[in-house]
Design goal:
Blueprint: E1 5-9, E2 18-22, E3 28-31, E4 34-36, H1 42-50, E5 57-68, E6 80-83, E7 95-98, E8 117-128, H2 140-153, E9 157-171, E10 178-181, E11 189-193, H3 201-211, H4 219-228
Parallel strand pairs: 4-11
Antiparallel strand pairs: 1-2, 2-3, 5-8, 5-9, 6-7, 7-8, 10-11
Length: about 240
């Protein structure tokens, strides 16, 4: 069961465990070190815990599930990106992308949705600063652009969408990552959020592990993190 962390309390004494409070429970989890990887919800933990907020620009992005033609589901077996050179694009975005048909449904079940292709447009429906302002609706013109792309570019996929929804892409001012220690926590709390990080998840996980285990070993990686991903670089924290 997913549990919402509401606050992290860190004592200056490194021998005292960090307290992690969970909503709706009397239980307090204890740890000596913590990694915060809450994505768009990161400020919901940072502000009550440390009095800090990142200056976020969260893209709420739309997607839809489309039905393949009979016996064509196995043709969609990899993730892809497509940059259009006019014709289908407008001033918003010319980048379309999609995901492979997976052996489970969009809700985690072995439902009919397992036979669907998830297609999306790399463009925000709206830009917000807090997930609570998420609309959860995909505008009709957004869905029409996806349908037009499928009609003109994709063989074996119908233009009939079965369902749709939105996701959140977390950004900061320079479109880079925030990968650093939380100030004044004696390097006991690390944070990762923001940026287009999907392709780098294995490396980011390795860096977080090293950060909480005495520091990054690779000198080049250490320089990159300190120079480009610091939480103290201009425009990252709300003033």
């Amino acid at each position: 069961m997913v549990k919402k962390v509401t606050k992290i309390t860190v004592e200056q004494d490194e021998e005292i465990p960090i307290k992690v409070l969970v909503e709706g429970e009397d239980t307090i989890y204890l740890a000596h070190k913590v990694a915060i990887t809450a994505g768009a919800f990161v400020n919901h933990i940072l502000k009550p815990s440390f009095g800090l907020e990142l200056d976020l620009k969260i893209w709420e992005m739309g997607f839809a599930y489309f039905e393949p033609e009979p016996d064509m589901a196995n043709k969609f077996n990899t993730m892809w990106f497509q940059f259009e050179n006019g014709g289908l694009g407008d001033e918003t975005s010319n980048l379309f992308y999609g995901f492979p048909v997976l052996p489970w449904g969009k809700d985690g079940s072995e439902a009919k949705a397992q036979d669907m292709c998830r297609i999306a447009l790399d463009a925000p429906i709206q830009i917000i600063s807090d997930p609570k302002d998420r609309k959860g609706e995909v505008p009709p013109e957004h869905l029409k652009r996806l349908q037009k792309f499928i009609e003109e570019r994709m063989v074996g996929l119908t233009t009939r969408y079965v369902s749709y929804g939105t996701c959140m892409q977390t950004n900061v001012v320079d479109n880079m990552f925030v990968l650093d220690y939380i100030p004044k926590t004696c390097n006991r709390v690390a944070i990762f959020t923001a940026g287009w990080a999907m392709k780098f998840v294995p490396l980011i996980g390795k860096l977080l592990h090293e950060m909480l285990d005495g520091g990054i070993r690779n000198i080049r990686h250490k320089e990159i993190v300190e120079n480009y991903f610091s939480i103290n670089r201009p425009g990252i924290l709300k003033q």
